[in-house]
Write a structure and sequence with these properties.
This protein is an alpha/beta fold and 278 residues long. The protein has a seven-stranded parallel sheet with strand order 3-2-1-4-5-6-9, with helices on both faces. A two-stranded parallel ribbon has the order 7-8.
């Protein structure tokens, strides 16, 4: 039986918004969430249910999930999409910034799964889509925190996939490549926040900003990504790992085949580390 109710986080733009519209067009009941309700007001006008939700707020997560389950009676698909990229020199990141990155990209996904999976277990079926990234496979300079958070999410998803399968709940790890969204703009904001005037890497600030914008270079449109992803998961046995979008196949292949020192050299040159001035 096809899923009926889809709960999606991070729907104000990009992948989350595109998935809302794609699932809705295919006749599913979509619950769109975002930190600011006004950012998804137009989705409500299209007949999509909307809720304000900051995934970092555990109490609010409980309140919203409880309200949706009371109203809809079930949640068949959970899409853990909310997240952001903390970009900057790893050695200079504060503990607070690191905690916020992991709380948003990793911890929140588990909290949502913990809240929604019991209702799925009662029905004997369910689907959880965790939106990871190829950055969780191929780490680049100045994205250590973000890459680490996505690698952690991939590992957590692997464990959940095995543990929840016995209850009829499927877990799919989605590893997008370059997808055209506002992701780069958000990442640039983190650079402005964390790169201090006395940074060791001030001389390659432009290269750090280029890393923040990397996901938008020759990127796959979010609508195309959403169509392909929904096609892949609206089946009886969806694949455990799905890679879609530009660079989603080549970067993991490079990581697998190219010697580490060689790949390090490629990335160091690309992101300005070979041209640093002291």
């Amino acid at each position: 039986m096809s899923p009926k109710v889809v709960f999606i986080t991070g729907c104000s733009s990009g992948i989350g918004r595109a998935l809302c519209e794609e699932f809705h067009q295919r006749g599913l009941r979509v619950i769109a969430t975002a930190r600011r309700l006004d950012s998804i007001a137009d989705l409500q006008a299209k007949g999509i249910a909307t809720h304000a939700l900051d995934v970092q707020n555990t109490d609010q997560v409980s309140q919203v999930v409880d309200a949706v389950l009371k109203q809809e009676k079930s949640i068949d698909v959970l899409v853990n999409n909310a997240g952001y990229a903390l970009i900057g020199p790893s050695i200079e990141l504060s503990e607070a910034e690191l905690l916020l990155q992991f709380k948003t990209n990793v911890f929140a996904t588990l909290v949502l799964a913990q809240k929604i999976a019991p209702a799925m277990r009662e029905r004997g079926r369910g689907l959880i889509l965790n939106i990871g990234s190829i950055s969780g496979i191929a780490t680049t300079p100045f994205s250590g925190a973000y890459c680490a958070s996505k690698a952690a999410l991939h590992a957590l998803s692997d464990a959940l996939r095995m543990e929840l399968s016995v209850f009829g709940i499927k877990v799919v790890t989605v590893q997008p490549g370059a997808i055209r969204t506002r992701f780069g703009e958000s990442a640039k904001e983190t650079v402005a926040r964390v790169l201090k005037p006395a940074s060791w890497y001030r001389s390659v600030e432009d290269a750090i900003i280029s890393r923040a914008e990397l996901s938008q270079v020759d990127a796959t449109p979010a609508k195309e990504f959403a169509q392909k992803l929904v096609d892949s998961v609206m089946v009886e046995k969806p694949p455990p790992i799905i890679r879609i979008g530009k660079k989603s196949l080549i970067l993991p292949l490079l990581k697998k085949l190219v010697p580490t020192n060689t790949l390090d050299g490629i990335f160091k040159k690309k992101f300005g580390l070979m041209q640093m001035k002291f």
